[in-house]
Amino acid sequence: MAIITQTRIWNNVPTKVIVDTSTGETKVYPTDAAFQKANPISAALGGSPPLLASSSSNEWAINASEFSSYYNNYNPNKPLTVDAFNRAFQTAGRKVFDNDRAAVFNNPKNYDGVNQYNQYVQSWQALGIPRIKSSITGVQTNSDGVLQTNETVSDIVPPADQQGGYSEPPSDLDGSGSFDFPSLGGNVKLEGISPAATPTAASAVGAPAGPPSVLRYPLANLETAREVGISYNYIKIRIVDYIGSLSKDQFGSRGLNADTFYLTPEGTNATVSDIYLNNQRTLGYVILPMQPNISSANSTDWGSDSANILQLVAGGLLNSYFSSVGNEGTGSAIEDAITKAAQSAGRLADAAVADKSSIAALLAGYVANTSLIQRATGTVINPNMEMLFNGPRLRSFNFTFDMVPRFREEAETVRKIIKTFKKYMAPEKTAGNAFLKAPKIFLLDYIYNGDIDQSETDSEWSKNSKQHPYLNKIKPCALTDFNVNYTPAGSYMTYRDGGSMTSYQINMTFSEIEPVYQDDIDINSNDMGY
């Protein structure tokens, strides 16, 4: 038997959950750091954190005034009254702590042998504690603590601090009854929501069901950092469907697919980048650390061009002719246009070359196919060289990530990250295999002072994911190259537990699908631009 202490960030409030496997009692306190922040004097005098909530059955007793005070302290932009907080906790918050408690009670390692495990699990079920499942009998309780014999309830996975720092399933503090998995996956399967296959959220390898999955390397428990106000920077890679440039006009006021794509104020005037950034469903996220070498290279395609005097004369003749015809119409006006064009070309020749013998030598050289002008006059034709704009260029970005799994969950995450990139950079076969659909598109952002565990929904997370103000932005990209080195240290070595390689190195090349234009860069904005 044991007393298990866990930490839990619930709606930004750092909490400590203590579960006693001998009595079945569960108590929720603020963490020491949270208590010190809220009551620095009391903490300095040796005071103890207050009890926020407790339970030994399917009912929770809550110190609503104290708990709501902590909640409002960590959520100043959306404060709640004591009554509103109490209703929200009893509606939704309790389910989070029910899950933490069940994760402890359902783990045979927390008991002295199989017999004791089976005996106590039956006791917890008799008390009506939610989500208790016996791996021996298969009997389980649902989210209300009612025994279920023919109905499968949620699978329980260990809480955040026992799984390498995974985040919690958020609760709906407005009491609406809807639940969404957060960025790093949920710890509990709620009704109507697809569960996390592993602690790193629903698998990114496959069609997304419900909220997008998030895979992050390295895994870490970020609760302590958040408690002391430390934020962090990272590279966020968002995976979305490909949209053809000729298809963007289908995003009208109704959207291309009301079930998948969101509306945009720009409507059909939106650029392809706007469609990707604002309208596209998200298949998943990959969160990777900042790199030591971050750079961008903007270039435009210019090329040299030359035109000798004869080409200029001919060009002037044609330009004058077509300009005159365009202005004066057709018919008899064409004769006047030809005359004017010839006169204009003649004046150009007179102004450009005073030495008519050089022109004669040039023409004779063309006939004789030799350089008579150099032989006759010792001169060369002025090429009138000029740098001319040929068009924009597409940018590419190269990244190299070294991944060294430190424990089994992190090794599984690294494997999923590699498989995710491999999967979504590959084309997709259509029915009958007659055609191939384009691979997925990747949206890359350098995030500054971000917190991927903080938001409850994809849209809210996007708002909190702030583009780094002093690093370049990147337009939607195709993943053109992806290379994995399974032995970057130069030798073959695996972990004994599971067989993961001890290190990996992945190299990726992303190429933007749209050039950078002047309109894309706002001189007065608070970012580095593209």
Considering the chains and any ligands shown, give keywords for the structure.
alpha+beta; four-stranded mixed β-sheet; five-stranded antiparallel β-sheet; about 525 residues; single chain; 3 domains
Structure description:
It is built from 13 helices and 18 strands. By secondary structure, the protein is an alpha+beta fold.
Task: Draw up the topology in text.
Layout: E1 3-10, E2 13-20, E3 26-30, H1 32-38, H2 40-44, E4 53-55, E5 61-62, H3 64-74, H4 82-105, H5 114-126, E6 140-141, E7 147-148, E8 213-216, H6 223-227, E9 232-240, H7 272-278, E10 282-288, E11 300-305, H8 309-328, H9 333-352, H10 356-368, H11 372-377, E12 386-392, E13 396-403, H12 408-425, E14 428-429, E15 436-437, E16 441-450, H13 458-464, E17 477-485, E18 504-512
Parallel strand pairs: 8-10
Antiparallel strand pairs: 1-2, 2-3, 3-4, 4-5, 6-7, 9-10, 9-16, 11-12, 13-18, 14-15, 17-18
Helix pairs in contact: 3-4, 8-9
Shape: elongated
How many individual β-strands?
A: 18
Tally of alpha and pi helices: 13
Largest sheet: 5 strands, antiparallel
Measured by DSSP, the beta-strand proportion falls in 15-25%
SS class? alpha+beta
Low-confidence stretches: 150-210, 252-268, 453-461
Number of domains: 3
First-last Cα distance:
58 Å
Rg over alpha carbons: 34 Å
Percent range of helical residues? 25-40%
Query: Averaged pLDDT, please?
Result: 74
Question: How are strands sequenced across the largest beta sheet?
Answer: 1-2-3-4-5
Give a nutshell description of this structure:
This protein has helices spanning 32-38, 40-44, 64-74, 82-105, 114-126, 223-227, 272-278, 309-328, 333-352, 356-368, 372-377, 408-425, 458-464, and strands at 3-10, 13-20, 26-30, 53-55, 61-62, 140-141, 147-148, 213-216, 232-240, 282-288, 300-305, 386-392, 396-403, 428-429, 436-437, 441-450, 477-485, 504-512. The protein is α+β, with helices and mostly antiparallel strands.
